[in-house]
Amino acid sequence: MKYKIEFKTFNLKHKHLFRISRGARTETPVVLLKLSFGDFNGYGEASMPPMYGETHQTAINFLNKLDLDQFNDPFDMDSILTYVDQIDTGNSAVKASVDMAIHDIASKIKGIPLYTYLGLAGVDRVYTSKTIGIDKPDIIQKRVSEAAEFKILKIKLGTRSDKAIIDAIRKVSDKPLYVDANQGWKNKYTALDRIKWLHDQNVVLIEQPMPVDSKKESNWLKARSPLPIIGDEGIQRLHDVETAEQFYDGINIKLVKSTGLNEGLKMIRLAKTKELKVMIGCMAETSCSISAAFNLVSEADYVDLDGNLGISNDPFTGIKRVGGELINHNLPGIGLINAEESWNRI
Ligand code: MG
After folding, report:
1. Residues 233-289: tens digit of each pLDDT
2. What is the 232 CA–ligand 1 centroid distance (Å)?
């Protein structure tokens, strides 16, 4: 039996202009993948925010090189994914789409949810944070009220408006906040000042305060920060975890960065040996990637899986959200519902 491959390009439409410290956008390009193995179909997704360099065309070029004919054991993840990884450097998002589809198929053949297939405990339900992009204070207050169901908000900072944004939020909400500066603080003294101030504002953690290449400064900051610092842009793949404790108290694992679940789980295991905190995060994504990532949340200290909630044209139905919680439906595979119908409508 051989794998059959199909893929489609798609553009996610953001409900609101999405602004972070490095730019703003209204759409995110994705490539959606369907692999078949006998009677079993597996689905995957490559979400490609522009700053990471992948595009519809690079993903198509990559998938055209993919030749899975040499594999006939659908459970031999390491062999298949080692082959996928060496097709070309980079291309992490499109590699992740193959990883998701292969895991979907393997766990569907076994008739079990993917987290069980991976040997993980799974969870019945889990709170996710809800991200609010950079905007004018009155718009931010509107977004905070729209996110009333969520227990934790993730706030994008990293510009001169940082204090105005937090002040605006604190006029309308006392919820715990995650703060993501997206490398926006260039000076270590400024960064430490802001973190100390945020510490007094019921902020729980700071994501990627300084640029990835500011290694000495990040090490200095980590030693002094009263809040845990989580590496995101600075933590792409497994090799980045090897030195992560020098700069961060925890790491944000996203399937599109890690090349998928197989390496993502290796990153989690290495992080735990170093007593690093683990966040399971996402990009703007459909319910395909979000459901796949949900299979890892039993291993997470922080869950930030809201990427499907900020888009208006999610073609898939997956992990359900009730209020601010994601609810496990225990389906075999990565957790999509009626995926074949969804696929045919794309
Ligand atoms: Mg981030």
Report:
1. 999 999 999 999 999 999 999 999 999 999 999 999 999 999 999 999 999 999 999
2. 5
Model confidence pLDDT, tens digit, residues 299-314: 999 999 999 999 999 9
Cα of 1 to ligand 1 centre, how many Å?
41
Q: Could you give the CA distance from residue 322 to residue 238 in angstroms, rounded to a whole number?
A: 33
How far is CA 182 from each of CA 20, 128, 208, 240, rounded to the nearest angstrom? 7, 19, 5, 17
Q: Is the pTM of this model over 0.85?
A: yes
- Cα of 118 to ligand 1 centre, how many Å? 26
- The rounded Cα 135 to chain-centroid distance in angstroms is 22
Place of tokens 């260039």: 186
Helices (H), 152-277: 162-172, 188-199, 215-224, 238-241, 255-258, 261-273
Query: Rg of the chain over CA atoms, in angstroms?
Result: 20
